[in-house]
Each structure stands twice: as structure tokens, then as C-alpha cells.
Amino acid sequence: MHSYDLEANGMATNLVNLDALIPREDFEEVSPEIKPVLGKKPEGLRLSDLDANRGITYGTLRKPDFQRETASWDPTTVAEFIQSFVAGDLIPSVILWRSPETGNIFVIDGGHRLSALIGWIRDDYGDKEMSVAFFENIIAAEQERAAVRTRSKIKKLVGSYGSLQSAFKYPDNADPEVYRNAKNADFFTIPILWVEGDAKKAEDSFYRINLKAVAIDPTEVRMIKARHKPSALAARAIVRAGTGHQYWAAFPVENQEKIRKQAKSIYDILFVPALETVITTGDLPIAGRSYAGGESLGLVFNFVSIASGLHLEATKKLVKKGRKKKGEVKEDIEADDNDGLPTLTYLGKVYDIAERLSGHEGCSLGSHPAVYFYGITGRFQPTAFLATVGLIQDLAKKKAFDWFTEHRAKFEEFLLRHRHFTNQIVSKFGGQLRSYPSLLKYYQDVLRLIADGRSFTEIELDLAANGFSYLKDRPDYDEETTGSEFSKAVKTLTTLREAIKGAYFCNICHARINQRSISYDHVEEKRKGGKGNPSNAQMVHHYCNGYKDRGGKTISPLPSSL
Ligand SMILES: [Zn+2]
Questions:
Q1: Would you tell me the crossing angle of helices 401-417 and 419-429 to the nearest 10 degrees?
Q2: How far is 163 from 174, CA to CA, in rounded Å?
Q3: How many C-beta atoms lie closer than 10 Å to residue 128's C-beta?
Q4: Is the peptide bond before 557 cis (omega within 30 degrees of 0)?
């Protein structure tokens, strides 16, 4: 059974990005008036229809602008699909709608199937001409690896499209099997089901097919419905560093430029360096993987909701209505963005928090990713990321960063020694916004208790008495294994353990520093005659550097008896 029946296979990594191959267009650019169509529509698409050099259909293909990224298939699925097509296997119908107004053909269902064939025709599996232009040369390492793997699998299974074309031209010199494949590929069709009616009808079909059939993350549904709101626009801009489909193309040019620039700088703080499948370094992106289809988009969308205060607004509104449901955001509290300014406001708020988390300006706390954002299983933890955002926001509101700096090392030590608590909170309430309030409260409680001078044992007891009785102390996590070889997970865990042990420490607050966010401080201040020689230099957090300059009180290192 091929997974392309479902258009998605749920794998988070190793996915082929075919998003560039069919351009997006807004349904609403089309007038709703229906003109009677007398001509008979084709019942199937031939491969030549999809070849820009041979057919006319390719140039008219579009996908709805809110369609999620075409990046849910792995290399094997893409290669096996092309093999099935060439072998004349029964391919599930694609569902298309032809705009009576523009004559463009929208793909309602089947974006992956058609993009896989187009990718084959153009030899572009997310790394060649169209993709490079679409992503403006920002091709993630994983995206490139998946493309290379796909190309080599297809070559083995079917042959490249180019080799089939030259078999047609020079049949005498061709490998008989390749020649047969070439003839097959040009003969078979992909069956089409046409949606009849206006743009509204087509959009309804889209929802019916795409939002119900496949397990789509509720965040993604929210994003589709909020697609003209600044929160969704900001999230889409960030996750692609301002490249890809320009959802903001209708805004004034100078605002478009600002959106792209701001999105790129946020992207660089959140997603650089790219996260490898096996972690071999403590140099990690603070927001995990940028390339996981809807997953990172959902995280960024939630980040935008929290940063912009939308999340709180939504909760307040729900509480008022008597529908107290934690972690739910209602879309109707946001107006559509018509000129880009609301999107820029949101991006500004997100930038401030990202910069605070681990940027390069004076306000940066240089948070170590392995302390805050990667869990006991070695995986990136979206909820921990969001709760840290919430904590930062709270500290900013109370202007309490100096206070945080004084207690930071002990706070982080508590988090590290109780990493299973974070996992337990997330497994109790669910991912992202569902456990966000509880995890944020946990951070705030621990920080307050540490500032009150409580010992770790006292804090555990206090937490248990105040809503966290379900947290169970347990011995250090060990990945369960039966074989004698080290799995990817085990290698990752080992790296993280050593990265935490071997991290750089700030010489002012004594907490760990993200190696991407180091500030060098004069031990003896310049104004007091301190020189620029190595013995007078120390590594600190950017924030701590300013803290010391402002005369912040001296913080003692953690006692070894903790
Ligand atoms: Zn520090």
C-alpha cells in the first residue's frame, strides 16, 4: 500500500520539498460568477501536459495560496510513485478545479502526486532551478540531502526523465527497458475528478478533502483560516526566512521589504545552525528544525500568538464566554492585514523575544539550547520553547532581568536535574499550547522558590503541594535498548550530556552560555585601565556584560554541594 493515497506520511525528517513546483494563487482573485462551460474537460493528465516544454497545462497549474507546504513525502514515496506511474499502476484521481475566469487549474487534491511528476520532469526535487529561485538560495542541508537521495532512487527504479527523453530520440542506442519506460510514461494518464462550480465551491471542497481526510494538526487548520491575519502572515514569513511564496505580495513594496528582512533575522536566531538527525555538537538551533513541513510552522505560529499577546486575549475572551479552555486561540480577535503594518508589528515583538532568548545584542540572555529547549530524550521540545518565551515575556513585563540573572544559574541547574518533570508535564497535557500554561507556571514557581532561597528538596515538596503532585522524581533517563549497536537516539543523548557538561559558563552569573551568543568582557574594566590581553578577557552573556557595567551585585558561583 502506497502512502501517497493519503498525501502525507507523517515523517518529520527526510522529506522531499516539492513546494516550488506548482505556484500558489489566491482563490479570491477570481470572480465568483459562473460561466457555463460547454467544452469537455479532459479525464486524465498526461505526463506531457506537465512538461512546460511540451504541453500547455503546466503553465496554468496553481495551488490555493493557503495550501500547506508540498513537503510530506520521503524520497522512497516519491520514487515509488513515479515507478508506479510508469508501470501503469492504478493511480488515485487528482481533484482539480478550473477557474472559469482565468482558465487556471487549481489542484484541490493531489499536489504531491503532480509535484512528484513535475519534479521528475524538471529534475528538481527541492534543490534545482525552480526551487533555488523560489527559496532564494536558502536550501536547508536536509532539503538538499533528501533531493539527492530522491534523484538516486529514481535513477535506479525508473531512470531520469532526461534519459527517457533521449531514449525516444535515439531508440537504437537506448537501453530497451528505458525505452519501454519512456513509451509507458507518455501513454498513461492520471485520472482527474473535476470540481464544478465557483471559487467558494472549490474552497469548500478543499476543506472537506484536506481538513477531514488526513490527520491535520489543529494549528494548521487555524493557520489556514487565519491566512489573511497578521499572525499567520508573520509565521509564514519567519519559517521560510522571507522566501518562498510571497503571501504579502499585495502590500506596499517598502513593507514587503521590511517583512522579508525582519523575518530573515528572526529565522537566523531561531533555526541556525540546521539541526542534524544525529546531534554531534552542543551548537543547536534554539527552535529546533526549520524543515519539517507543518510542524515548525505550527510552533512559530504559536510563538507569534504568545509574543503578540494574542494568546492571552483569546484566553480572556473564552473565559468571558464561559468557555474556559486553556491553550485555545480564537481567530476572530484579529483583523485582516491589508498593508503589512500589523504583520510588521507582530514581527517586531517576535524579534525582541528571539533576540532576548539568544541574539547578539546587549539584551541577549544567550540561553543554552540544551538547558532550555532539548528534552531528556534528546529531542527538541516545542512546549519548552514556548514556555521559555512566556517566562521571558513575564520577566520583561516586571523588568526583572537583573533579578533573574542573580538566580539564573541555580534555576537552570534545577531544570537540568529535573528534566523529566518537563516531559511529564507535556505528556500530561499534550503538546505546545495545551501544556503551555502548566509548564510556564512550573518555571515561574521554581524561579520564585529559588529566589526565596529554598533547597532543591524543599522546592520539590512545595511543587507537589501546589498543583504539581503528579511530578515523579525518577532516576536518570536511559534510552531502552535491546541491541548492542548505538542507535541515533543514543548517540544524540550522549552528545547532549557531554554538551551540557562541557558548556561555556558565564563568569558573571555562572550559568551556561549558548556558544552562538557569547560576549567577551574585560575582567578589569576598560575605564579602570583594563587592557585587551587574553588574561583580562572572560566569556559572559551579553546581558550579564551590561549588568556588570551597570554595577549589578556580584553573584557567587553555585556551591558544589547542591
Ligand atoms: Zn551570565
A1: 90
A2: 9
A3: 16
A4: no
Whole-prediction pTM value?
A: 0.80
pLDDT in tens, 43-61: 999 999 999 888 778 999 9
Element (H, E) at 166: helix 161-169
Please tell me the distance from the alpha carbon of residue 118 to that of residue 125, in angstroms, as a whole number: 9
- For residue 263, give Cα distances in angstroms to 17, 233, 242, 271, 381: 20, 10, 5, 12, 22
35 Rama class: left (phi>0) / alpha (psi -120 to 50) / beta: beta
Q: Which of 301, 290, 278 is nearest to 241 (CA)?
A: 290
CA of 529 to the centre of ligand 1 (A): 23
Q: How far apart are alpha carbons 346 and 219 in whole angstroms? A: 18
The rounded Å distance from CA 378 to ligand 1 centre is 24
pLDDT digits (tens, 9 = 90+) for 19-30: 999 998 887 655
* Cell numbers that stand for 94 in this block: 487528482
Q: How many CB atoms lie within 10 A of CB 472?
A: 9
Q: Is the dihedral of CA 64, 67, 73, 77 positive or negative?
A: negative
CA 399 – ligand 1 centroid, Å: 17
For residue 214, give the amino acid letter.
V
Domain boundaries, the chain: 24-215, 489-549
Residue 3 alpha carbon to ligand 1 centre in Å: 49
User: Contact at 8 Å (CB) between 294 and 69?
Assistant: yes
Give the other-Cβ count within 10 Å of 213's Cβ. Answer: 13
539 touches 520 (CB < 8 A): yes
What is the distance in A from the centroid of ligand 1 to the CA of 555?
10
Measured in Å, residue 461 CA sits from the centre of ligand 1 at: 28
